[in-house]
Amino acid sequence: MNRRCALAETPPSCRCVVAIAAAAVLSAVPAVWAVEVQVGQIYTGGTRLEVAGLGVAFTVPQGWRGALPAGSEVFLLQPESDPNVYILAMGEQATRAELAAMMAEQIPLGDGLTLSPSGGVTERGKALAARYQVFGGASQLSAYGEALAASHGVGVAYVLIAAPASLAAHEPALRALTDGTALDSPTGGQAGGGGGQTATGTTSGSDDSWAGYLKGKYIVRYYTATGYTDEQHLWLCSNGTFYRQGASGGFGGGASGAFQADSSGRWSATGRGASGRLVLQYGDGSTAQHELWWDYEKNQLNVDGKRWLHDKNTYCD
Question: For 4-183, which CATH superfamily applies?
């Protein structure tokens, strides 16, 4: 199932993993009309949300809460009465026919879990619908999904995941979510070149080398799936040393607090503009090379084809 877009991201051609992202979220936001989705906010039932850059608007079902957790690319909804039930909301750059083909395939959730179709793709009004069994988990789960496609090439998919005995009780919430979704042409924030910027986001005339861009940076990748979080943290110090830490586990993990590097060594980078290469030479003498690519349209850093985030480097200059 390819070409997924993070529902809360402005560019209409990004990728995201179909995954449950469970992480710490921040203050609750009261129900108001057409709130632009923000990371780390909890939205209560009845709140109308929009993603203007995708042309998508939807309403959190009554009795549910929704949030885009930090580091996640999937909007997560849960009923207030049952934390073991989820609806995953995601954007799709796809036609209706492509959505139907995607829904008919097995869908990996990560962490060994897979949605396997238990019947054909059907229609419910304007929506496509499909049922799934969830394989690979410690407990038995089932899923029900619906999707809508718009004329501007962006669709929205919602997937409800719950124990088989409780799935039907929560399907009305998913159907209400689908029926209340509006798909219009995206507005604002559309990147298109120009603006005097280089591919690594610096202004023309400044250093657009990858070595210059990465110097003193802290970059991190989060992969969230089925309530577990795998993280890779990389501190690239200005003196040419690096520290790398990987973490996995439940609900949030992270590298805040006392820091202990899993590995360290020296780093270098080559290339300018859109593409480059990062070389990590570890203390044991081994070397790893990573392909770098700056997606100017979405203003994103990609390492080996995966999106990485960058944050303030509080460990080394």
Answer: Mog1/PsbP, alpha/beta/alpha sandwich (3.40.1000.10)
